[in-house]
Amino acid sequence: MSRPQNHTSRVASAGGFCLLLFVASAAMAQDFDLSWHTVDGGGVTVSKGGDFEIGATVGQVDAGALTGGDFTLAGGFWPGAAGGTVCTGNERINKAKCKRGTNELTVKLRNGVPGDGFVIVLSSGQRKEGDLNGKGRGTARFTNVPPGPGTARATFGCGAVNERTYRCR
What is the per-residue pLDDT for 149? Predict the structure, then answer.
């Protein structure tokens, strides 16, 4: 006499359930390992067209820096890709002030990496470039700045950006 098909299904289901309990109990008996792991990439892919270029990396390396002796290994977001330096995080425009009674603006930069390049662009479109001195400071002077309020935007070679407002009379 043959058994009904649904009885076989029940036995298979019960066997599968027992196997699942066995596997689950074996897994619960194990110690868990939550070690830190990352997927890291490497290299740089750059596409160029005319005056423009864009770069990308799949799987950025961990952010941060390791130092030892005279060497530093920095990771994350292409440190030093532009200008060959790693930002300090303190780069800023210290002062943006017009000389009284004139439209001559002086913009002073501080806390940068010595020798790093910079570009300052005013809201009027005027632009100056330079390099920071041995103390991480830089100065740019603009003439014929339109009267009224404006904004100076400094982009450091390492990638840091800082803005400051000014007013010329």
Answer: 93
Tell me the one-letter amino acid at 153.
R
- Residue of 123, 126, 132, 112 lying closest to 152 (CA atoms): 123
Q: For residue 111, what pLDDT is reported?
A: 93
Instruction: Give the residues of the chain that fall short of pLDDT 70.
Output: 1-49, 51-85
Rounded to whole angstroms, the Cα distance separating 19 from 86 reads 56
Instruction: For residue 153, give the 3-state DSSP assignment.
Output: strand
Q: Side-chain half-sphere of 100: how many Cα atoms within 13 Å?
A: 0
Q: How many domains does the chain have?
A: 1
Read off the CATH number of the domain in which 82 is found: 2.60.40.10
Interior angle at CA 142, CA 153 and CA 150, nearest 5: 45
